[in-house]
Amino acid sequence: MRSLLFVPADSPRKLEKGLQSGADALILDLEDSVSAAGKPKARELAREFLETAAGKENAPKLIVRVNALDTGMIEADLDAVVSARPYAIMLPKACGGADVQHVSVKIAVREAEQDIDDGTIRVLPIVTETAQAMFELGTYRGASHRLVAMTWGAEDLATDISAESNRLSSGDYTPPFSLARNMMLFAAASAGVDAIDTVFANFRDGATFERECRAARRDGFIGKMAIHPDQVSIINDVFSASPGEIERAKAIVAAFASNPGAGVLAINGAMIDRPHLVKAERLLARQKS
Q1: Cα 60–200–203 angle (5° rounding)?
Q2: Residue 150 in contact with residue 184, Cβ under 8 Å?
Q3: pLDDT tens, position by position, 143-186
Q4: Alpha carbon distances (Å) from 235 to 10, 132, 171, 192, 207
Q5: Which CATH class is domain 3-238?
Q6: pTM of this structure
Q7: How far apart are the first and last CA of the chain?
Q8: Domain locations in the chain as residue ranges
Q9: CA 269: distance to chain centroid?
């Protein structure tokens, strides 16, 4: 998943527009973008959308951001959407692997009740939205077979630590938020799942957004979340492998397949070792997902 577009679950118009955005995944939001009074209706609309959109040709992956575990609303969220088999549940304000285990159990019970194969619905936690969560980033490894990727959040974290801003005048993150971003990247690698970069709020500033996307890909993120359809094409362009990168990856994989005992090989005058093979295999695997 390169691009994951947030869509308020209480807006049929925006949900339908999301299908035309070109995003690899839509995040049907039951949390921040929906008022408390609007959540019951949003749950109904989310379920209906999941049931109808999933069968459409070239439909994106459909993810539902539920309300946090401590809100008392997640039970109703899951009751509404699990039967429609979303690709994943996005868990906000996750405080560690135990929270992923907790929501996984809730999903498993509902899968069993609906005669859905165990593990069909995955979990994608947002892992840096509180100060407490920062100290639990090493606990996601092995937490659940449902864990499919990880992402991070800067806005709720700013509120939690009383930060006046999370950005410098240049647009770059201030040191506390750079730390959160970087630690989340390491946590995802440790857990063996993809790292997805957080949103960029100023959707009209395409130049800075593209620069942030390129920095994220450089550092190891495989995709980025979006808050506006106009951001999707930039994300897809930046996080797509070029034909040259794909051919080089195929050449690396083929070379090691032909020389299984080799530790180092030369390809086009460059020395290639096992870490290059792992990166090539990952790149090719992402082209299939």
Answers
A1: 85
A2: yes
A3: 999 999 999 999 999 999 999 999 998 889 999 999 999 999 99
A4: 25, 30, 18, 23, 12
A5: alpha beta
A6: 0.90
A7: 7
A8: 3-238, 243-288
A9: 37
